[in-house]
Specification:
This protein is of the alpha+beta class.
Length: about 375
C-alpha cells in the first residue's frame, strides 16, 4: 500500500491493513456512479480541517466500468423494445479492506458509530447524501495505536447535486425511516431528507443492541427477525408499533446496554415527532398564518440547551392522541425541524448521556 499511496485518489495512513477487497456490482447507467461520487467525497475530505470526513470514508484503490457488459447491448441483440430503459453495466471497484462495525461492542461500538454519524452529517451538508444507512454499510478499521475508527461505506445509492433529479426511493427496508415506508413514499412523492438518514442510524443502533452480543449474532429466534421478510408497508406497521409500544419491552444484550440507552432516548424523540406530525391542525386559519418560530438551533449551538429538547416524556399509546396536540406543536414538528436541530436533538444530545467528551472527538491523529 505504501507504494500505491502516491497514486491513490485518497489515502488513509492510519488504516493498518494492506489487504484489499473487490466490489462487483451492476448499477443503473443513468445513476451517478460510486467512483464518481467518491471523487467528490475525497474533494470534501481534502478540505476537512476538523477531521470529520478525511479518515472516515473508504479508500478506493482502482475501478473499471465494463462498457461492453451493458444490458442495453444484450437487449438490442435479443430484439427487445426499450433496450435503454433501466440499463445496467458492470463495475469492479477495489477498496482497502474494512471490518464490520458489528464486530465491536460496548464503548468501542458506540464511539465508531458516532464517528460515522458525524462524517455522514458533514457530507450531507456538502451535498453528498448517502441515503442507505444500514449495519452492512457501517464499517471500521483499527489503527496502529489500537483505536477503532468508524467508516461510512457503500456510496452506490448516494446522490449529489449532479445526480439526476427525482424522488427515487432508496434504502434497506428494516432500517429506513418510517416516513419512507409509506405508500406516498413508494409512489415517489416523498423527498429523502437528512432526518430520514438520522432515523436510520437509530434503527441500526436498535438492531445491533438487541441482536449482537460481543460481536456475535445471537442464535434464532432473534428480536426483529420478522422485519427482514416484510415489504415496506408491513415493516412500517411493525416499526410504528415498536416505536410506540414494543421498545418498552425490549432488553439489550449485555454488551450493548450503553448503545441501547442512546437508541431508547432517541427513539422517544422520534416517536414524539411522528405523533406531532400526524396530528390534525385544530385551527385551519392558524395553520395558514405566518410562523414566528425559529427553524431550530443553528450550528453555533446557541439554542442547544436541555430546555429546548422536545422529548420530555415517554410516548405510549395512551398519550398518542393527536387531538390533544396544539397547532403550534404540530407545526414545529412538521415544518420547522432543521438538519442542525435533528443532528443535535436526535443524536448528539443522546450520545452525550453515555460518552464523555473525549470519546466524541472524531479526529484521527498520529498517536491514535
Amino acid at each position: 500500500m505504501s507504494a500505491l499511496a502516491p497514486t491513490l485518489p485518497h489515502h488513509n495512513p492510519h488504516n493498518a491493513t494492506n489487504e484489499l477487497v473487490a466490489k462487483l456490482y451492476w448499477p443503473e447507467e443513468e445513476r451517478e456512479s460510486e467512483p464518481a461520487i467518491l471523487e467528490k467525497v475525497y474533494e470534501i475530505a481534502k478540505k476537512d480541517e476538523e477531521g470529520k470526513v478525511r479518515y472516515h470514508v473508504p479508500e478506493m484503490v482502482w475501478f473499471r466500468k465494463f462498457e461492453d457488459t451493458s444490458t442495453a447491448i444484450i437487449r438490442r441483440a435479443l430484439g427487445l423494445e426499450n433496450a435503454e430503459r433501466g440499463r445496467r453495466v458492470l463495475y469492479i471497484v477495489v477498496f482497502r479492506k474494512l471490518e464490520p462495525i458489528t464486530d465491536l461492542s460496548g464503548k468501542q461500538f458506540l464511539v465508531a458509530w458516532w464517528h460515522i454519524v458525524v462524517c455522514h452529517y458533514a457530507l450531507w451538508k456538502n451535498d453528498v447524501h448517502h441515503c442507505d444507512i444500514s449495519p452492512s454499510n457501517l464499517m471500521v478499521y483499527k489503527t496502529l495505536g489500537g483505536r477503532y475508527i468508524g467508516v461510512l461505506n457503500d456510496f452506490d445509492l448516494s446522490s449529489t447535486q449532479d445526480s439526476p433529479s427525482g424522488l427515487e426511493l432508496t434504502g434497506t427496508v428494516p432500517f429506513m425511516a418510517i416516513e419512507l415506508l409509506t405508500q406516498e413514499a413508494i409512489e415517489g412523492k416523498v423527498k429523502h431528507l437528512y432526518r430520514h438518514d438520522a432515523e436510520s442510524f437509530l434503527w441500526v443502533l436498535t438492531w445491533v443492541s438487541l441482536r449482537y452480543q460481543k460481536g456475535q449474532l445471537l442464535s434464532k429466534p432473534r428480536p426483529l427477525d420478522q422485519w427482514l421478510a416484510l415489504d415496506a408497508i408491513q415493516c412500517m406497521v411493525k416499526k410504528n408499533d415498536f416505536l410506540l409500544f414494543g421498545r418498552h419491552k425490549m432488553k439489550p444484550t449485555r454488551s450493548h446496554k450503553r448503545s441501547w440507552n442512546v437508541a431508547r432516548l432517541s427513539l422517544r424523540t422520534v416517536g414524539l415527532f411522528y405523533v406531532l406530525k400526524a396530528a390534525e391542525p385544530i385551527d385551519s386559519e392558524s395553520e395558514d398564518s405566518d410562523d414566528s418560530e425559529s427553524d431550530g438551533p443553528d450550528e453555533s449551538g446557541s439554542k442547544d440547551s436541555d430546555e429546548s429538547e422536545s422529548d420530555g416524556s415517554e410516548i405510549d399509546g395512551s398519550k398518542a392522541d393527536g387531538a390533544n396536540v396544539s397547532v403550534e406543536a404540530h407545526r414545529r414538528a412538521s415544518a420547522s425541524l432543521t438538519d442542525a436541530s435533528v443532528f443535535k436533538m436526535w443524536l448528539r444530545k443522546k450520545i452525550r448521556t453515555q460518552l464523555r467528551a473525549k470519546y466524541l472527538d472524531v479526529r484521527v491523529g498520529p498517536t491514535s
